[in-house]
Each structure stands twice: as structure tokens, then as C-alpha cells.
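INFO batch 0412 | record 1 of 1 | parsing
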Amino acid sequence: MGGVFEPRKGGGAAVALDEIEISILRSLAVQLLELIGPGEPEPAADADPLAVLFASDGPTEPPSDPALARLFPDAYGGPGAGSGEDPEELRERSAEFRRFTEKDLRTRKREDALAVVRSLDSLTPAGDGAAVLELTGELPLRWLGALNDLRLTIAARLDITEDDESAVLFRLPDDDPRKPMVMAYLWLGGLQETLIETL
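INFO prediction complete | emitting C-alpha cells
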């Protein structure tokens, strides 16, 4: 897959994507949205914001799905944290932190993935099947967040934990069932890296 982000004249970033790349990115972003789950209903316009904050606590336990656990990690190290602190106290502090932050974090991740889907839906490939996606305003940061979340999710599914494992991933045989996801993981990494460079 060829597209890489380049600086856009006047700010932002641009990337040429073919129909297959658009389809893959959109599919991955939709799957990420499904993984994160639906958003919370909007509170009534006349609702007291402070009452809304304290009336709708978030979860206190980490997700059981490894991909969600990677997207929403424990704030205080989680199991096996070698800090020498009391594990029960760390668990309680993580639960309290998660209770007040995870809903907002889920909302931001959902908005980032939705921005990717909407950006791709607005593209019209030319006769050669390619389209140029231009990201301006807050879109580059939304895309960075979504690309990062997609890579974390795929890494969890592939059980990738160390950066140095990428050398092993490059050498997977073509008949390995993990190969398509590995290629997507590496391609998303290239997109993410070039988007960072343009900013």
C-alpha cells in the first residue's frame, strides 16, 4: 500500500488513497467503533452539568477484552506493576480514575474514529481509482488518535508487545493467517509516522 501523508500547502496534511486503501481504512475504523461501543445519550439541555457528571459514573473495572484493555489501560500500572506499592491500593486508585475518565476517553476515541469514517466517505476517487484526502483544522489530530487506536487494537489481536517484533512480522510467510492484519498494522504505522512528520 503506497499512500503516505505529505504536508499540505497552507497547513495540514494530504494523502493519496486508492479505492482498496479507502475501503480497508473505513472497515477498520468501523470495526473500532463497534469495539468501543455506542455513546452515552445526550443529557437534557436544561440538565445541571455537575449533576450529570456525578450521576453517570463510568466503569471501575478494566475491560476483559485485551484490545479494549490496551485502549483503556489502568492508570496506575494494573496487575504486576512493580512499584512496590500495595496492589489493592493501586487497584482502588485505578478504579476511581477509570470511573471519572473512561467515558470521556471512549467519547474521544469514538469521535476520532467517526472523523476517519466521515473523511473517507467524503472522498470521490478519480478515474484512476485514487483520491486525495486533505486534513485541515482538527482532522490531523483526530486521524492521529484513530490511527494510534487502530494500531493498538491490531497489536492486541496479534499479541504484539515489543517494537522489535516488527522484524519478525516482516518475515511471516504469505500463507500465515496473520499476514493480512500484520500488513495492515505496518501500513497504519507508516501512515501514522508520516502524519506526525507533516505536523
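INFO post-check: The longest strand covers residues 13-18.
INFO record closed
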